[in-house]
Specification:
Radius of gyration: 18 Å
Shape: globular
Oligomer: single chain
Pathway: Polyol metabolism; myo-inositol degradation into acetyl-CoA; acetyl-CoA from myo-inositol: step 2/7
Protein name: Inosose dehydratase
Structural class: alpha/beta
Order of helices and strands: EHEHEEHEHEHEHHEEHHEHEH
Distance between the termini: 10 Å
CATH superfamily: Divalent-metal-dependent TIM barrel enzymes
Number of domains: 1
CATH architecture: Alpha-Beta Barrel
EC number: 4.2.1.44
Number of helices: 11
Strand order of the largest sheet: 3-2-1-11-8-7-6-5-4
GO biological process, one term: inositol catabolic process
Number of strands: 11
Catalytic activity: scyllo-inosose = 3D-3,5/4-trihydroxycyclohexane-1,2-dione + H2O
CATH class: Alpha Beta
């Protein structure tokens, strides 16, 4: 059973304003976003492109709403750019998150990624790393992990559609190549299901590495369309491939049971990028919060 005292519930602002597709939700303000998060019953948030990056300013907005920062996405380019470029950017990102009280740093390798390319089929053109690149990725993540630990924080790696670490096999390889003391795993139900993997199997295999959780669902008919029509990741998002937990094809009951059995402690972050003109962010946030209460007892 999940321990309510060990888990915090957050939601990502990407449902209100999409960082990769700024035209989705461009009219939604930062203040509306965080107010609706709080009204829906969440206690935290990840960071979107409309959030102030001055910690003192951001805290002034979040505190009256009872919100805190869980983490924020960081794009690494460990296999395509000089290491120091990623290190410098990561250090600034780390210091901002540390000032906001976050304990984990979400990292995803963007070298060769096609997730932001509007016309590249997400399944057909998915990149793969050469062996030398795998070694570069592992070494670079170890360096980022060391920098995170300077602030008593953890790097949590985000497997993601359209990148070199997407499939269960690729996650296995990354976990094998990296030191558990320096690199942990972000477990994302939606990206695994989208990729055709079994989220529960991945969670069971790497339970000891999971330190951050994204709760995301998929619409199976849309994912089938994405594969059939050779759509890009961004086209998939616009088509409605993702939705909130309980509104799609993912079976969350065994996932919640496993997370409870492993005594998971940390954040559950609802993340479901959709077109807010078609899927009202507040209504879907309320739907997600109700589902988590009913199914996970939180």
């Amino acid at each position: 059973m999940l321990d309510n005292s060990r888990i915090k519930l957050g939601i990502a602002p990407i449902a209100w304003t999409n960082d990769d597709l700024p035209e989705l939700g461009g009219e939604n303000t930062f203040e509306q976003c965080i107010s609706e998060m709080a009204l829906a019953g969440f206690e935290g948030s990840e960071v979107g492109n409309k959030y102030p990056r001055d910690p003192a300013v951001l805290r002034k907005y979040l505190a009256p709403r009872g919100l805190s920062i869980a983490s924020a996405w960081f794009s690494a380019f460990l296999v395509t750019k000089p290491l120091q470029e990623t290190v410098d950017a990561f250090t600034r990102h780390r210091d901002f998150l540390h000032a906001m009280g976050a304990r984990v740093i979400v990292v995803a390798e963007q070298g060769h990624s096609i997730q932001g390319m509007p016309d590249r089929p997400v399944f057909d053109d998915k990149p793969s790393f050469a062996e030398e690149e795998w070694q570069m990725l592992a070494a670079g993540l170890h360096r980022l992990g060391e920098l995170a630990q300077e602030k008593e924080m953890d790097v949590v790696y985000h497997h993601h559609m359209g990148t070199g670490v997407q499939t269960a096999e690729e996650i296995d390889k990354l976990m094998k190549l990296t030191d558990p003391a320096l690199v942990s795993l972000l477990f994302d139900t939606g990206h695994l299901a989208f990729s055709g993997e079994d989220p529960l199997a991945v969670l069971a295999k790497h339970a000891d590495r999971v330190k951050h959780v994204h709760l995301k669902d998929i619409r199976a008919d849309v994912v089938a369309q994405v594969r059939r029509e050779r759509l890009s990741f961004l086209q998939a998002v616009k088509a409605g491939a993702f939705t909130v937990p309980g509104d799609g094809a993912v079976d969350f009951a065994p996932v919640f049971a496993k997370l409870g059995a492993m005594n998971y402690a940390g954040w559950f972050v609802v993340e479901a990028e959709q077109d807010p003109a078609l899927a009202n962010p507040f209504e879907y946030a309320v739907k997600a919060r109700r589902f988590i209460r009913e199914q996970a007892g939180l």
